[in-house]
Write a structure and sequence with these properties.
Layout lengths: L4 E2 L13 H10 L4 E4 L11 H6 L6 E10 L2 E6 L16 H9 L3 E5 L27 E4 L5 H19 L18 E3 L44
Parallel strand pairs: 1-2, 2-3
Antiparallel strand pairs: 3-4, 4-5, 6-7
Length: 231
């Protein structure tokens, strides 16, 4: 089953160009079946989500979220009901941020981890140290606001390296990535599917967009997507 979902969206509550209502209407017109609201460092858009989604011709599924935005990188926090403080952030120990999101019943993953660093885009590149990589629930591997090479390609390779590190001698066939009308993409590490409060019923992937045909391997993990606002 293929389902279009978009888990990285911004509105005028942070640096987007649409209201919550306009975003919901836009996503519906794009054929998106479910989405997450992930404004930068704010949950102020939450109150209007239910009414906006229920007012559509076909009520849309959604989850609450936000994008923790720091000088050391951006962390997408999904399935949270309230803002999670991070003013005591430690660049050398990002684990505590992931743990806080998990304690709140959410999932967390780095957004556009290989963006151009300072002085071109201060804070966009992930530069925090993670000591326990099992804390990562997903990695945003394709973001259409960033070039496929090197940004997105490096993110894909990072995810692959983490998967290989937990699959020991298992070798996956070479993958060919064809990005067509991309949508923001997330590929959760195979070792880190949290059964508690899983967001959507997919066994091995979060699908953010349409692809010509599902890949033969590994595990039908192929994700693409298109962000509806700035990073």
């Amino acid at each position: 089953m293929w389902k279009r979902i978009e888990l990285h969206n911004h509105t005028i509550e942070s640096d987007g160009t649409m209201t919550v209502q306009e975003l919901v209407r836009y996503l519906e017109l794009q054929g998106i079946h479910a989405f997450s609201l992930t404004d930068h460092n704010t949950v102020s858009g939450f109150p209007g989500l239910t009414m906006a989604c229920d007012s559509q011709a076909s009520p849309m599924e959604y989850i609450n979220g936000f994008e923790l935005t720091s000088y050391y990188g951006h962390l997408l926090c999904q399935n949270v009901s309230a803002y999670i403080p991070w003013d005591d952030i430690d660049k050398d120990f990002a684990d505590s941020l992931f743990q806080r999101v998990h304690e709140a019943g959410g999932l967390a993953g780095p957004a556009h981890p290989f963006s151009l660093p300072f002085p071109f885009s201060n804070g966009m590149r992930w530069s925090m140290n993670i000591h326990d990589y099992h804390l990562i629930d997903f990695i945003e591997v394709i973001n259409n606001a960033h070039p496929m090479s090197p940004d997105n390609q490096e993110a894909i390779l990072w995810w692959e390296s983490l998967v290989f590190s937990v699959t020991a001698s298992v070798r996956f066939p070479a993958w060919t990535y064809t990005v067509r009308s991309p949508w923001t993409a997330f590929i959760p590490p195979a070792s880190r599917w949290r059964n508690k409060r899983r967001l959507f019923p997919f066994p091995s992937s979060w699908i953010m967009g349409s692809v010509p045909a599902p890949p033969a391997s590994p595990g039908d993990r192929c994700l693409t997507g298109n962000e509806t606002g700035p990073d």
